[in-house]
UniProtKB/TrEMBL annotation:
Residues 1-32 form the signal peptide. It comes from Cohnella lupini. It comes from the Bacteria. The keyword Heme does not apply. GO terms for molecular function: hydrolase activity. Keywords: Signal. Residues 236-334 form the Cell wall hydrolase SleB domain. This is Copper amine oxidase-like protein. Residues 49-153 form the Copper amine oxidase-like N-terminal domain. Transmembrane segments: none annotated.
Amino acid sequence: MTLEKKKNKQISKPILVAILALLLLATMPLSAITAQEKPAATKPITVTLDGKDVKLKDPVIVTSGRLYLPVALLSRMFGAQVDWNNNSEETTINTAYGDRIILGNGVPVVYFNGTRYVMDDAPFVEEGRMYIPLRDAAELLHARVNWNEEERVAGLESVPRAVVTEQFGLTEIVKQMGSSNDELLKRNGLKAKDSIEVGTKLRVVIPTLFDREAKPFTEEDRLLLAKITQVEVGDESYESQLAVANVILNRVKDSRFPKTIRDVIYSGKQFPPAHNGLLDRSVPKATALRAAKDALNGKNNVEGAVYFYNPRVTKGDFWSGLSTVGTIGSHRFAK
């Protein structure tokens, strides 16, 4: 056999394999090829109100397994009035049934008719709009929500108030709604001794978060926290001030430190202004007051940090041996 024939024989096998592969691809369904190249798109989420589709200008956001919708959109759906405070980054909602709701950006505590409750997840601002967990929002706005996973439909149902009649009193309403006397009275700002007359309209949706009242704090604590924050980082950003406030609150929770805000600030050497008179003369500005309030309401941007220091000024084995949680402004926050 000549050298040329040997070469032709060696080349023929790879060519034959390539031809067979092309034939196999040609016989495969186009859908099968496409599926390998690009995963199937997730079906978009639909929101309905009382069975009718809601037109959404802004996207539904899904995070941590929860659906979030814009606060303003939800409020309008249920006839509520919404006000946004850009300085405090708070939304105030006055509902059609007379409830008052105050939500803060990144703050897990909601003020509902003057009482503080803890939500499972905090509202947040995205693209200039505040988003809130859909289920919490629906209940606060006196509505219910049902989620159909297969159809990816969030069905909102507005719930009218129950009207007291001679035949349909508190006992009957409680039984129908599956709540308790105490829950229904609390929801309507009533006490057991209050008389409920015929014709009274009662709000009957009991928000789930009613079981999670936030730990109280005093105005004295808030002011003291704002004052030390002002002294320490009053010329820096809100994020820096929030972090300093949280270092103090993290210490209150830590067994190595005193158990009150005042004792944490006035003990030890971490806060010299508490011992040289600067703290007593401090007048906190709006940003420090907001940082103190948000921290007390659970917004924490330095989880676990119990120390803060300026690495350009403070040095030594103790500080270098700490674990850094984050650096904000001129300070490093550590544990």
